[in-house]
Design brief:
Blueprint (H helix, E strand, L loop, with lengths): L2 H7 L16 H32 L3 H19 L4 H28 L11 H11 L1 E2 L6 E9 L6 E7 L5 E5 L2 E4 L5 E3 L5 E4 L3 E2 L2 H6 L1 H6 L1 E5 L2 E6 L3 E7 L1 E4 L4 E4 L5 E5 L4 E3 L17 H8 L1 H37 L7 H13 L2 H11 L6 H6 L9 H29 L3 H9 L4 H29 L2 H5 L7 E2 L2 E5 L4 H10 L6 H32 L2
Antiparallel strand pairs: 1-11, 2-3, 2-8, 2-11, 3-4, 4-5, 6-7, 9-10, 10-11, 12-13, 13-14, 14-15, 16-17
Length: 539
């Protein structure tokens, strides 16, 4: 009989069960969780405000709406007691959209425009730049004390003229126009030069010399047909433009020569009757012209197939070599045969992976030098390794293999350790030799884990800009085609075409990037399908 039954039989009152004690630390845990949630939502609010302020200033209401919608979604998910899985998925999804999907969409949208040097802004900005750059000084032109500055980095930031007028007022002049600065935000020496300004970096003499040509061409638009240009490094003047825009004919008229440059809205430029085009234009959509240019332009079409063939061969060759070498060394280190200093050997094998790749590429380039390179001196040779097409290609494959095999060695080592040794032993008992056991048992299981790694290695090396540019710069070049080198990849060839000539051509570069993306995506999908079929076989 139970104690309760005995007590009931004896007439004793039944004892109530003891209350369950609270879990220690529960209040503090809930407080910590609440504090973490408040901090995360506060950070989300701060990021939303930081992103919305410039969007509001630029009147980009679509962007403001997107920021508001994302912020509302974050608050809804994390303040609601439901949607628990979404609480974990939302941060990763937002980061995926921000750092993967949006850059791809922006690249695609840029690829169908003429965006680049001379075509960066809209038509109004192009007109203001044309008029400002043609400013000439007149006898009654106002003068300013000039200080050259930059908005951000001194070497790459947008130029800004800090101008001190005769009455002591300080202005900041950029490509958009003049902005009066608060006296409390600037420091001016007795001569009127600005020595310090909030939000701007005053350039030193050396930095000014490095950007001398850019400063000489820079002008600040100030009104209808007027602008401010530099006169030396300490003075600037406001003058009148010799080229002015006429709205009735939608053209720019040069008062000095009388030539009219009519607006060509399809090309985003002002063009004269004899075909001369002003350098300053505006951004417009060009459809698939950038794609067609790369495929049909005689200067690029003649080299496209040969570069693509070498590009695929380089990526496939590198992937095969690093896989074979990395796997072979991993098998050697994985054997049960006693090997003294196994740990030291593994450290030495991983050493190239720990080295900065750009420094090693430059070092290898010097080692292949014909006259004083280490390779020729040690082997007693006189080979121009980087001057011949095939030796240069072989050199790059050798260097890239040396840099890449440690990673494959580490991956293969981990994959081998996940395969039970009993499977190989069972195959040996059934009469299979060492090679047969590896070929029919170990390798298929290994490829299930390593095929995605091989696909990513191929995709990475397909766009391995550093390996080629820092070693051979795409050369050697044939005398009849100085734009396409024997070791050029599509990415290095595009860089030379888009940024090595007359200014930067971001639209054209984006179009070729989209083509490269499609090629790599197609090859990767085919490879991953093969990997999937391999998984089915090994189930």
């Amino acid at each position: 009989m139970t104690a309760v039954a005995r007590n009931a039989a004896a007439g004793a009152p039944e004892r109530a069960p003891a209350p369950t004690s609270r879990v220690r630390g529960a209040p503090s845990a809930s407080v910590a969780g609440l504090a973490l949630k408040i901090g995360a939502l506060g950070l989300a609010s701060a990021l939303a405000i930081w992103a919305a302020v410039p969007l509001v200033g630029a009147a980009n209401w679509i962007g403001v709406g997107i920021v508001a919608a994302v912020t509302a979604l974050v608050f809804y998910v994390y303040l609601s007691p439901r949607h628990v899985p979404l609480k974990y998925l939302l941060p990763g999804t937002l980061l995926l959209i921000a750092f993967q999907i949006l850059p791809v969409l922006y690249t695609v949208s840029t690829s169908v425009t003429n965006f680049g040097d001379g075509h960066r802004g809209d038509k109004e900005q192009a007109i203001a730049a044309i008029e400002a750059y043609s400013v000439v000084r007149s006898p009654d032109s106002p003068s300013y004390t000039l200080t050259v500055a930059a908005d951000g980095d001194p070497a790459t930031g947008d130029l800004v003229f800090l101008l001190t007028a005769a009455d002591g007022t300080v202005y900041a002049g950029d490509a958009e126009g003049l902005t009066e600065l608060d006296a409390d935000d600037v420091a001016v020496d007795p001569s009127g030069k600005v020595t310090e300004a909030e939000d701007y970096t005053v350039l030193t003499t050396a930095e000014i010399n490095e950007r001398g040509n850019e400063i000489a061409d820079f002008a600040v638009p100030t009104g209808d047909g007027t602008g401010i240009r530099s006169s030396g490094l300490s003075m600037a003047y406001e003058g009148r433009a010799t080229r002015t825009y006429q709205e009735d004919c939608d053209c720019v008229v040069d008062s000095a020569t009388g030539v009219e440059y009519v607006a060509d809205d399809a090309a985003g430029a002002f063009v004269s009757a004899d075909g001369q085009r002003l350098l300053q234009g505006w951004q417009v959509g060009v459809g698939f012209d950038n794609f067609l240019r790369f495929v049909t332009d005689p200067t690029t079409a003649s080299s496209f197939l040969s570069i693509l063939t070498w590009n695929i061969g380089f990526a496939a060759g590198t992937t095969l070599l690093v896989f074979a070498l990395g796997l072979g060394l991993a098998l050697l280190m994985h054997t049960r045969t006693p090997l003294r200093g196994r740990t030291l050997y593994r450290i030495l094998l991983v050493l190239p992976y720990a080295m900065p790749s750009f420094a090693m590429l430059l070092l290898w380039r010097d080692m292949f030098n014909t006259d004083f390179g280490l390779i020729n001196r040690v082997l007693g040779l006189d080979v121009n390794w980087l001057g011949n097409a095939w030796t240069a290609r072989g050199s790059i494959l050798l260097v890239n293999t040396w840099l890449g095999f440690p990673y494959m060695f580490l991956v293969a080592t981990g994959a081998l350790q996940s395969i039970p040794r009993e499977l190989g032993q069972a195959a040996r008992i059934d009469g299979a030799g060492a090679w047969q056991a590896f070929r029919h048992v170990t390798l298929p299981l290994l490829m299930v884990a390593m095929t995605p790694i091989l696909v990513s290695t191929f995709a990475f090396n397909f766009n391995n800009f550093n390996a080629v540019w820092l070693t051979t710069a795409g050369g050697p070049f044939r005398p009849d085609n100085p734009l396409a080198g024997a070791t050029d990849l599509l990415i290095t060839y595009t860089f030379r075409l888009a940024f090595g000539g007359q200014g930067a051509q971001y639209g054209f570069a984006s179009a070729v990037s989209v083509l490269i993306f499609l090629i790599v995506a197609l090859l990767s999908v085919v490879s991953l399908r093969q990997s999937r079929s391999l998984e089915e076989v090994n189930r």
